[in-house]
Structures are given as structure tokens and as C-alpha cells.
Amino acid sequence: MEIKLLQSTPLEVADPAIAKCYGKEPYTEVEKQQNRINRVANVSKHSSTIEHLVYSFDIDGISRAVLQELARHRIASYTVKSTRYTLQELKKATDEELGNFLIDSLPAGLKVDGVQQLKTLRSVLNDDVPRDYAKYLLPESYKTSLVMTINARALQNFLALRTDSHALWEIQDLARAMFEVLPEDHKFLYNDHVKEQK
Fold this sequence. Notes:
This protein is an alpha+beta fold.
């Protein structure tokens, strides 16, 4: 799995929103901006004010199982690699390359089962079954990639839910990796939402 932060809104965009609520003037000093954002959004839980902060992540090498989990977070935008258009890659792959289409951290037995599923799928593709039908044979461990854009309030919720030990292990890894690539000066918004890894 590889996560890159494509862009993030500067913190100074949230401070005028907070200032507007209270009839105050925006701060120009970074430390004062951070203190007010923390006090209002984190301490007072007036977190709608940080919805003006937005992050876009390039996420590569997650499973279709995690993609399904991500869909539960509706306050985000997803642009996902098209399975229909990219099944050609699988159709051309050799037996030795099939394991590369599955997430890396699968136990050996599941990896073998996933490769068997991909062999069946490749056979179906070679029989010229339309890709829209063939993709129903994809294992949940099949790798995909996407760009995800999410606002700060929704990201707080995502991190709180998906770093919890009850979340799927792979989405826990994703959530922690997303937190790690955030700008250092933004992490104060999320420190209380990221759970300790057990």
C-alpha cells in the first residue's frame, strides 16, 4: 500500500470561518490560528468550522475489500481505477505475475486461493466474456487504487473509526498511513482521533 498526500488546504483557511462565527477578525499569526482552531474545533467540538480544510490522497495497492469499507464514509469523494478498463492487464499476465494483482499481506493459503480465482477470471476473459460480467469473479484481495478527497471533520471521524482495533486490519493500516502523510502543522486536529495500535 502506498499513500501520497496530493494537496491540503492551508490552516489559515479555517481561521476566517471560525472568526466569522464569533464576529472576530481572522488572525495573521500561525500560532494564534492553530490555538483558535484547536479550541473551537477540538475542545468545543464546533467541528463544522474545519470542513473548509480539505485533503486529497493518492491511495495505491488497497484491496477491493477496503474499497467497500471506504464507501461507508459518504462525506468524501472517490475516483477509483476502473476495473472494467484495466482487466486487460490481468488478461495479459503470466501465471507468475498473477500474485502481483493481490494485496501483499495475505496469508500464503489465501494468496494461493486468490491466484486460482485470477486464473479462472483470466480464462473467462480469454473466452471473450464481457469485462462487466467477468469482474464478478474478482477476489476481494484484488488490488485497486484511487484518489480520495475528504474534509477535516470527516477525516476526524474516519480516523476515529478506522484506527480502532475492531476495524478491518487493512483499513487500520490505511488510516494510520493517511495520518502519517498529513502536514505536521495539521496533525493537532487528529491526534485525539487516532487510536493506539494494539
